[in-house]
Write a structure and sequence with these properties.
Strand content of chain A: over 45%
Mean pLDDT of chain B: 94
Distance between the termini of chain A: 41 Å
Largest sheet of chain B: 7 strands, mixed
Largest interface: A-B, 26 and 26 residues
Strand content of chain B: over 45%
Shape of chain A: globular
Helix content of chain A: under 10%
Number of strands of chain B: 11
Oligomer: heterodimer
């Protein structure tokens, strides 16, 4: 069965520091992988996605993620955190022949210290 | 182009009452989904639809029913609300597997 694990329910970084949010997935078929961001009292917004092709994907707001099949990982990074990055981040997986149902990780709340 | 909209934004129910949540999308998407979000659990799929007139169960379907009579609308019904259904409900739509677009959510409290 497909699943997603996000290590760390809370991550705290200083403004200007590297952001690293971890995501590992379990899938018996080639996955499509996503990172979504949720600001307080709002819906989810797509940050970036991997479907096929280049394994390093760039998203909005300076975020990027690399699909590593051998490690079954899709970690999210940003070189320099900004106060406005404080939010909750969700990793999700889907695959063809599943009606594209998303399976979400439990989320990581990013705190940015001034 | 409004994207995905949800009605209502907030609702408080008493145990045993019923209600319907409405999701509408104006992007001509085939796929639509209902999720619930609970603290520490991410989003979990309740029901989904791959086209007008079709519905299917997701991960946590018990206590909910859905209908997709029109392509642009996806209704989620609670026939007899329970406190365990207190949650934030999100609707999403998708043209294909490339991206799901989410609505702003409905915060439901069942007393």
């Amino acid at each position: 069965a497909q699943s997603v694990t996000q290590l760390g329910s809370h991550v705290s970084v200083s403004e200007g520091a590297l952001v690293l949010l971890r995501c590992n997935y379990s899938s018996s078929v080639p996955p499509y992988l996503f990172w979504y961001v949720q600001y307080p009292n709002q819906g989810l917004q797509l940050l970036l996605k991997y479907t096929t092709g280049a394994t390093l994907v760039k998203g909005i707001n300076g975020f990027e993620a690399e699909f590593k099949k051998s490690e079954t990982s899709f970690h999210l990074t940003k070189p320099s955190a900004h106060m406005s990055d404080a939010a909750e981040y969700f990793c999700a997986v889907t695959w063809m022949d599943s009606s594209y149902k998303l399976i979400f990780g439990s989320g990581t709340r990013l705190l940015v210290r001034p | 182009n409004a994207g995905v909209t949800q009605t209502p934004k907030f609702r408080v129910l008493k145990t045993g009452q019923s209600m319907t949540l409405l999701c509408a999308q104006d992007m001509n998407h085939e796929y639509m989904y209902w999720y619930r979000q609970d603290p520490g659990m991410g989003l979990r799929l309740i029901h989904y639809s791959v086209g007008e007139g079709t519905t299917a169960k997701g991960e946590v379907p018990d206590g909910y029913n859905v209908s997709r009579l029109k392509k642009q609308n996806f209704l989620l019904g609670l026939e007899s609300a329970a406190p365990s259904q207190t949650s934030v409900y999100f609707c999403a739509s998708s043209l294909s597997g490339n991206e799901q677009f989410f609505g702003p959510g409905t915060r439901l409290t069942v007393l």
